[in-house]
């Protein structure tokens, strides 16, 4: 099922995994901070375990199981659990834990992100639409040099993607219709959530998001409206072919 490309006014891009390489960024900082504490932690494995807690922690908020908490709080709670599980909790004081949480504020952009976003800005309003907190996204976008026109944090909606309100809050804030917003993401759950809220969607393939040793199984398991291989500004994005 396609959509009217000419109707698109806003391109909203997911951040973690879609625009920035969270795994490399978090893994390197985890390993460095652990080494300072005299602890040997495998940074990539720790980053993977931390990320695995991402969706479940947000779902507890979105379901009403717990009150609203922004992503830094959820990351901190998951971190504390992981340090206990690894048997190294005593080696990380409050300052070290805060630094680890803020690792998610400092992540490298994928090689094609800056140029791709800059190209899209010539034609569209380009927004960061992420579950990250507002401060996190501000720091991340600034540090990575990502040329977004605006930041739309889940903190503004006080719920998380893939809940419809996370997308529809962005739509209302930009004073457009859902069908005038194209959501670009590298994850099935985000594509499905955006489409369910009435947005146009584009899948951006990031086969190395979870590391070179892990097969990108997600990319063959869902039906995205568009398939974008490579740059977000690639001409292949502006078609209606499916993966």
Structure in a nutshell:
With 243 residues, the protein is α/β, with parallel strands linked by helices.
Topology:
Elements: E1 10-13, H1 22-36, H2 43-52, H3 54-62, H4 71-85, H5 94-101, H6 113-121, E2 125-130, H7 134-144, E3 150-153, H8 154-157, H9 164-173, E4 181-185, H10 188-196, E5 200-205, E6 227-229
Parallel strand pairs: 1-2, 1-4, 2-3, 4-5, 5-6
Helix pairs in contact: 1-2, 4-5
User: What can be said about the biggest beta sheet?
Assistant: 6 strands, parallel
Overall 3D form: globular
Spatial order of strands in the largest sheet: 3-2-1-4-5-6
Q: Would you tell me the structural class of the helices and strands?
A: alpha/beta
> Ranges with pLDDT <50 over ≥5 residues?
216-236, 238-243
Q: Which bin fits the share of residues in helices?
A: 40-55%
Average pLDDT rating? 88
| Terminal Cα span | 13 Å
Number of helices: 10
Tell me the total number of β-strands. 6
Topology as a string of helices (H) and strands (E): EHHHHHHEHEHHEHEE
Percent range for β-strand residues: 5-15%
Q: Over the alpha carbons, how many angstroms does the gyration radius reach?
A: 18 Å
């Amino acid at each position: 099922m396609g959509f009217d490309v000419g109707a698109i006014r806003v391109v909203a891009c997911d951040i973690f995994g879609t625009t920035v390489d969270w795994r490399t960024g978090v893994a390197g900082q985890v390993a460095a901070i652990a080494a300072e504490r005299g602890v040997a932690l495998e940074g990539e494995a720790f980053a993977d375990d931390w990320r695995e807690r991402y969706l479940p922690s947000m779902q507890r908020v979105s379901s009403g199981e717990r009150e609203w908490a922004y992503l830094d709080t959820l990351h901190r709670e998951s971190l504390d659990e992981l340090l206990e599980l690894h048997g190294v909790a005593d080696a990380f004081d409050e300052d070290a834990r805060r630094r680890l949480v803020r690792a998610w504020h400092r992540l490298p952009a994928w090689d094609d992100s800056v140029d791709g976003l800059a190209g899209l800005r010539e034609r569209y309003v380009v927004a960061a639409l992420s579950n990250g907190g507002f401060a996190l996204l501000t720091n991340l976008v600034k540090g990575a040099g990502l040329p977004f026109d605006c930041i739309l944090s889940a903190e503004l909606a006080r719920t998380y993607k893939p809940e419809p309100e996370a997308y529809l809050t962005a739509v209302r804030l930009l004073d457009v219709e859902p069908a005038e917003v194209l959501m670009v993401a590298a994850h099935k759950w985000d594509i499905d959530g955006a489409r369910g809220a009435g947005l146009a969607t584009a899948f951006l393939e990031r086969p190395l998001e979870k590391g070179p040793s892990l097969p990108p199984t997600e990319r063959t398991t869902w039906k995205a409206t568009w398939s974008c291989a490579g740059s977000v500004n690639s001409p292949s994005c502006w078609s209606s072919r499916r993966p």
